[in-house]
Each structure stands twice: as structure tokens, then as C-alpha cells.
Design a protein that fits this description.
- The chain has one domain: Collagenase (Catalytic Domain) (3-Layer(aba) Sandwich), CATH 3.40.390.
- A hairpin with a 7-residue loop joins strand 2 and strand 3.
- Helix 1 packs across helix 4, helix 3 crosses helix 4 and helix 4 packs across helix 5.
- The two termini are 28 Å apart.
- It is built from five helices and six strands, in the order βββαβαββααα.
- It is α/β, with parallel strands linked by helices.
- The chain has a four-stranded mixed sheet with strand order 1-4-6-5.
- 42% of the residues lie in helices and 21% in strands.
């Protein structure tokens, strides 16, 4: 079972969910992050990850994610999500860290509204993207990208988000 530790390093906890409504979204509790991580693992067929896993999910500002992107990826730009894997894990029966997922809340909101989505949908999409990276998926080649993005779409659809 996955354990998700949510850390909000953003100065805000609540955002507008849609550009054309007054619905307020609490970014830390708007999704059952643990069940979403479990769904990613289940649909990815990564059975070795069915052990006790811990993911740290952080929400951050544009300046923080830009610093992280520059320091760890040599890209001096704001991005929506970053993921950082931990070392290879072994089945000890205890909860072990899988990695960190860091989402830039402001960038997520901008992207959601540009695409006509809710912020909640975009956070689900970005979190699933991060979990799949932690499971070893990437999008460096066309074939890998197709596999990862199809799986990501399957996760959000199964979670009940319809585009």
C-alpha cells in the first residue's frame, strides 16, 4: 500500500478550481493521493511496486521549481512537475521511499485554464505523470512517450476524469 506525504511549500493552500467559477479547491486534500498512486501502480503492471511505498508530494512556487529544474536538470525554466527517484528498493516488509513528486501549483493552474480543464484534473494528471516516472517510465523516445502518455490517460480516465 502506498503512503503519500503531502507537503505544501506554496504560500497558498486554496486555488480557484476553474477559470469561470468561484469553486475553491484545497490542493492538499482535493484528491485521495494514496488511492491515485495505487491506481497508477496497478494499471502499470509494476507488481514489484505492490510493496509498501512512500511518496512525498510537494506543492511549490514557480521560483522554487525553476531553481530545482535548473539545479537538477540544467534547464533554467519553470516546469509543471518534477519527480526524483530514490535508490533501488528491496522487499523488507517496511514502508520504503519510492521518490518525490513536486508540482508547481501556479503553473498547473495556468495549464488547466489554458486547456479548459479544472485545476483538480490537472493536479491528477501531473501526479499520475510523476508516479509513472517514479515507476521507471519516460518520454524520451516516441515509443516510450506513447506508452507513458497512454497509460497516464488510462489512469485519469479510470480515476473518473473524463476529457
Amino acid at each position: 500500500m502506498s503512503q503519500i506525504n503531502v507537503l505544501n511549500r506554496d504560500s497558498k493552500t486554496q486555488y480557484l478550481n476553474k477559470s469561470d467559477s468561484n469553486e475553491i479547491l484545497d490542493i492538499e486534500s482535493c484528491v485521495n493521493w494514496s488511492s491515485l498512486a495505487e491506481l497508477c501502480i496497478k494499471l502499470s503492471d509494476e507488481m514489484e511496486f505492490n510493496l509498501n511505498r512512500e511518496i512525498c508530494l510537494s506543492f511549490c512556487t514557480e521560483s522554487e521549481i525553476r531553481d530545482l529544474n535548473r539545479n537538477f536538470r540544467n534547464k533554467d525554466s519553470i516546469t509543471d512537475v518534477l519527480s526524483f527517484n530514490f535508490q533501488e528498493l528491496q522487499d523488507t516488509g517496511e514502508i520504503q521511499p519510492l521518490g518525490d513528486i513536486i508540482i508547481c501549483t501556479t503553473r498547473a493552474q495556468e495549464q488547466a485554464w489554458e486547456l479548459g480543464y479544472t485545476l483538480r484534473r490537472e493536479l491528477i494528471f501531473l501526479f499520475a505523470h510523476g508516479v509513472l516516472h517514479l515507476l521507471g517510465y519516460d518520454h524520451e523516445t516516441e515509443e516510450d512517450a506513447e506508452k507513458m502518455f497512454n497509460l497516464q490517460k488510462q489512469v485519469i480516465k479510470t480515476y473518473g476524469i473524463l476529457d
